[in-house]
Amino acid sequence: MTRPRPIHRLLAPVLAATFGLALTAAAEARDGLAGPYLAARLASQNADYASAADFFTRAIAADPTNAAFLQDAIIAEVGRGAMDRAILKAQLLDQLDAKSQIADMVVLTDLAQRGDFAGAIAALDAGRSSGALVDQLYRAWALVGQGQMSDATAQFDAVAASRGLQSFGLYHKALALAAAGDFEGAEQIFSGEAGGPLRATRRGIVAHVEILSQLERNSTAIELIDKIVGTGDAEFSAMRDRLAAGETLPFTVVTSPGDGVAEVYLTVASAMQGDAADINTLAFARMAEYLRPKDAEAILLGAQILEAQGQYDLAIETYARVERSDPAFAMAELGRADALISAGQTEAAIEALRQLARAEPDRPDIWSALGDTFRREERYAEAARAYDAAIASFKTTNEAQWPVYYTRGIANEREKNWDAAEADFRKALELKPDQPQVLNYLGYSYLEMNTRLDEAMGMIERAVAARPDDGAIVDSLGWALYRMGRYPDSVTQMEQAVELMPVDPVINDHLGDVYWAVGRKREAEFQWRRALSFDPEEKEAVRIRRKLEAGLDAVLEEEGAPPLKSVDAAAANH
Fold first, then answer.
1. Please, what is the Cα angle at 425 between 416 and 503, to 5 degrees?
2. Where does the pLDDT of residue 34 fall: very low under 50, low under 70, confident under 90, or very high at 90 and above?
3. Would you kindly state where each structural domain of the chain is located, as residue ranges?
4. End-to-end C-alpha distance for the chain, whole angstroms
5. Distance in angstroms (rounded) separating the CA atoms of residues 111 and 258
6. Residue 2, pLDDT above cutoff 50
7. Which residue, among 168, 109, 85, has the nearest Cα to 293 in the 3D structure?
8. Angle at Cα 119 formed by Cα 116 and Cα 123, nearest 5°?
9. Three-state SS for 140?
10. pTM here?
11. CATH number of 345-433
């Protein structure tokens, strides 16, 4: 399957011109006239759709003929997922005879939701538009809704004939044929016999598998899953099991013309994700969900965009709309847990992950997510137990498992269970021998224990070679050189580390120690003061203050550590 030209290059400029939350000149002129408008503007700039919608509604109540207020209110209502309110505001905007692409899209979505495809075609003919590509695919599905399959097929073919859009036209044509029961025709498109082949999207693979099953070709469908998806995906594993048991899978991707329009929106949203303004992508995802309220893919896409925008409450609410019976429920709960953590509701996230782990105890990704959450909260014993459960649920051993051993190693190391931690780090390196994070962590741990210094140096040098711009890893190399008494060499590495991570308290503290070791004591004191200003852990802060009072030599003597070498001896050691 091949990838078409990036769709965002064709759509984003058109959509961004009218979907963005930047206000028009007419609205700008009202800056000093209405508190609700100013509050709405600020909320809009922060992508706070709920507040923006509420404030714009109040502004509209004061000035109901202001088209700019109505358009921005529609955008905010769509952003927060209140499509019914967006539809009402679009109807009000119509009464003002104002042109707005977002309002057009809302009206067209409403027509599709009501099954009024004759009205939809008339609206397109009258000039309503959601963008050229969307309009063409929407029209084709509206023709399907009118029972005009030949005309619809010709419309899909016209899209496929457009430069860079072949896959979009063919994909929707295949779905329309399958929805009409022509599985042979749909399969010819998916297999590349009638144009194509199509790019391997998740949705496309599901459709192709279901089509093959309808054609009594379950074994071919299983081969397709094994080749493209492999193992480890819960939804496809469930499909594979049903196919292997001889079950004929129903065709579910598109079951009606309205579903087809929703699929148009989702296709465009998925193609634009990460490349167009978030409100553009979110608008398509929201409207796809409005047409298919149980569509997990549309729900997840919308939630992920909201989370990326920092709208955690809306993201949490959106993730929660995926039904427990849906194969994507676990993915949605993992996303909801992340959003809860970002919103400062860590205990709620832990409880959600615990419930999910109890429901699906054989999912290592769930246990690992729970372990990561405990580890970030410095609840290391609980983290280690969660990682234990993750590792116990591994069916086979593979390279992708290294992060679980690595993170369990960190939890064990913080619990002062060094033997177990070392074994975990070694296992992670066995699975992925040159992983720089593991090499750095294990090498640095050896440095702190003043043991295996040559091996530690080798590990850290390999880590730096892999990630020369990682300040923490460069710091480890500088610290290794310091531990080995090579102070002049250490200065060079430590200064580079501070350039890479200038506000890190540990790295600034280390640079202070290295400056002291080469006799640059004023600079050392300056770096220690900088380290204190960056809020180090209290134990380290106490040690830094003591160094400022008495000097590094006195602190080392108090700690029973070996004294520093002379600068001449350090240079000779090099």
1. 75
2. low
3. 345-433, 435-574
4. 57
5. 9
6. no
7. 109
8. 135
9. helix
10. 0.86
11. 1.25.40.10
